[in-house]
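INPUT
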Amino acid sequence: MQSYPQSPVTGQMMSQPLSISSIIQFAARHYGGSEIVSRRVEPDLTDLHRYSYRDCELRARRLARALVERGIAMGERVGTLAWNGYRHLELYYAVSGTGAVLHTINPRLHPEQIAYIVNHAEDQLLFFDLTFLPLVEAIAPHCASVKAFVLMSDRAHMPLETRIPNLLCYEELIEAASSDYSWPLFDENAAAALCYTSGTTGNPKGALYSHRSTVLHAYASAMPNVLNVSARDTVLPVVPMFHVNAWGLPYSVLLSGAKLVFPGAQLDGKSLYDLFEREGVTFSAGVPTVWLGLINYALQNGLRFSTFRRTVIGGSACPPAMMNTLIDRFDVQVIHGWGMTEMSPLGTTGGLLVKHLALPKEEQRKILQKQGHAIYGVDMKIVDDDGVELPWDGVRFGHLLVKGPWIVASYFRDEGGDVLQDGWFPTGDVATIDPDGFMQITDRSKDVIKSGGEWIGSIDLENIAMAHPAVMQAACIGVHHPKWDERPLLVVVRRPGAELTREELLGFFEGKIAKFWMPDDVVFTDSLPLGGTGKIQKNRLRELYRDHRLPGT
Amino acid sequence: MQSYPQSPVTGQMMSQPLSISSIIQFAARHYGGSEIVSRRVEPDLTDLHRYSYRDCELRARRLARALVERGIAMGERVGTLAWNGYRHLELYYAVSGTGAVLHTINPRLHPEQIAYIVNHAEDQLLFFDLTFLPLVEAIAPHCASVKAFVLMSDRAHMPLETRIPNLLCYEELIEAASSDYSWPLFDENAAAALCYTSGTTGNPKGALYSHRSTVLHAYASAMPNVLNVSARDTVLPVVPMFHVNAWGLPYSVLLSGAKLVFPGAQLDGKSLYDLFEREGVTFSAGVPTVWLGLINYALQNGLRFSTFRRTVIGGSACPPAMMNTLIDRFDVQVIHGWGMTEMSPLGTTGGLLVKHLALPKEEQRKILQKQGHAIYGVDMKIVDDDGVELPWDGVRFGHLLVKGPWIVASYFRDEGGDVLQDGWFPTGDVATIDPDGFMQITDRSKDVIKSGGEWIGSIDLENIAMAHPAVMQAACIGVHHPKWDERPLLVVVRRPGAELTREELLGFFEGKIAKFWMPDDVVFTDSLPLGGTGKIQKNRLRELYRDHRLPGT
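OUTPUT
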């Protein structure tokens, strides 16, 4: 790591490296009785798994010893293909705690991509949930670095026959290992975890987190302006542990002493609703598409939430209509979050300031729809195509750049070369920042519609479309225009049973935007292409509608 | 600093030292419009001073430049004798931000002690509020290291004649300095601030904080389990910036974007109440004696709080009666805090767990009266006289030991030599810890009453006495007993106008404690001796009652 000028006088405080194992040790010692409840992944096990922080630490310690006994050394990678559950949590702590590197893999990626990143990471072991047995059978022959595959279940769930070489049983590994293991201390800049971005172009690239970055992110993300996790909360992370570290909740929840509830593989509206009610969930976090399922289920069945009071929504922008429904119909506070795999992942969260508390509801809602303030530790700025910083006036939008101790300086194995611009990480997002420091994403840099030399933000247009009661999903892309280079095209999925014409929807935009921003056309479709993390694949849409002929051209 | 084993694989995150200047830069950039409101120290200025985070950073930067221009080098100490106000805040950031060391001095100490610590710290400059002009005139001749004294006011408030050599005017310093200054980056273990403990025995000893320890403490203390500061809060720190860093609020408030209100020198009940109401204070923090004044004022005048909803009480234990009054009469949530100058200062805070939320109010109240959970980063244990760790059963009490990255490893200039016990800092407190991790202070190690080989906790006895409606203050000390070595003596100040006899008060203890714990005697007095930080001086009491003859001896 870079070194900085020394002071002739050093503080006389205890020296202690920041470490992920310190979180699980703290949790077990100081909040030992706090509960962890998990929906099981094995389809025949319908009860919920329950244990305490204390139990979790003990099993993580035995697992750590098993890893060391199998020769996993500091810095070596251990892969996981798993849902949000207690065994995955044990791996989070056991792998990083020994000094090895936890490599969480997104099972929604194409099997070829999964094999690519297992090989690129040189995973030594690959742990996987029962769900992914067929997937692992398919990729195992292509994973040369993997010395053993570990099925995250007990002996009863092991396959009788398998093509997977060297298949081990998770529970047997733990049973065979002694708990006589002490979490080692090492330099806090040691690599701790690896997560690949699902890049839409080129090969996936790995963000390699350190113990220092993970602990700083955990402190920052627990704060009231961010995830606001306390020992009085019951937290259900919908956002997956197999991508972007479930927004750091496996760390921030445990250091806060909250009750933790894992949904396993069942992320449909009914399953989530039942679990929220049964376990008294107060706080959850996830992407908009998941909330869509939950909201629709609750609305269709006339249900309300007994304990659920707060959610952080990120991954992609929360449509204003969804925010309104959650707040007005369900009394659930919505905090807008923004971040990236490359940012551990949290960068900003929404929320009001003191001076906004007396504003009318509608004014407040407009503020809450912004992605909000940088989290202390993160700095951000917006720049034009030439890298010149733009003013924070809430109007001008530019490329969003960030820096901070939990943001990547480069990718694993230096894929993509030197990624920073003058020390700042280019997020690939386009945003405005207002004089109060509220950032609002207006687009992805590659999705912004460049029309006659001006920029049109596709997300603004989508949000307006989504506010129409007959619209279930909407995406806006730029398509070729002979005079303006690009003009906006709306691609819309109607609500089941709803009627809506092109003219009605365009009429709905009247008076809400500048004339210049008005979409040139609307097409209706049955579904939008989604990527591995549930986001709409706009590059795929642009391909599909490349030859779309806009009216009047 | 100590070094730890390196991993062969280092995380690929941005390298950035933790620094105090990063807080003020963040605050000015991202919450630039947030307000700082101060009662002024100059007696003729009765309006409130108001400005923004942005203004504060600009003035701190000019002040930093002025310090550098006057030759203040990295690691050199700069003293302050000042109330909670905006100029003191500017010094917090300007001094540490340049790499120099902010030395906050408790003006309530004896002038000889103040001169001692100014010399011990070798303060190069001494900044002081107008209030302390006579004090500084008295000590100036004895402060050889101080090159200049700076009165924290404008030209109009400078004395026409003074015996102070080299007296400068704060506002003139700032006006003369250019804002052309960039906050430097340096190693995060650099010393940042120095605070002397008001040791009751021996000379005061300095705790020398680093940038790293201060920033980690700031993150940790902002969390919902601790001070719980958000951008929606209006925070009034009653706890002084001249001691224990106002519990870190000058840092945690600014990184949270909250509105900050400073009370200046006026800490009486009426002044505080007026300021709370006028500025919409939602959260405050201070020692019990301050709340006593505020509560009595509000009760006597039949007042309620419009916006005040949460307070952290620490410094000494919050009497249960006070907690009940704040919660039941005023609807103010009380969080018990515990810490020490040597701990930056926060160690634990109270609060319920998920499983306590359904308990009856009385049961919850008992839990809230404990000092609570270690803050993530801090570890704690209790040991007997031989250093053997005691069980966490909520009953056994022992010496409380702590460790963590914001706890001293040694004192400034190594006063007191090697203070750690096997890597742990002995707090001098005696405590129980229950199976859920709740710590409760039962005594100071030196105040515990050792009777017939058993320990009797003086604070438990005081709390019971304080719950009697006729008792205003109570202290319990051990006095010599020919058979039992020591037995408890209660020293009590009655409420004005209240009647109470020895027998009535002892009768009040019946059934509340083991017979063995019953105080042997009660004496009534008009006042209890208080130290420089408002705590009851038990060593002084023990001296006063050394020859007290217990009944039956």
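end of record. Chain A is about 25% helix and 25% strand.
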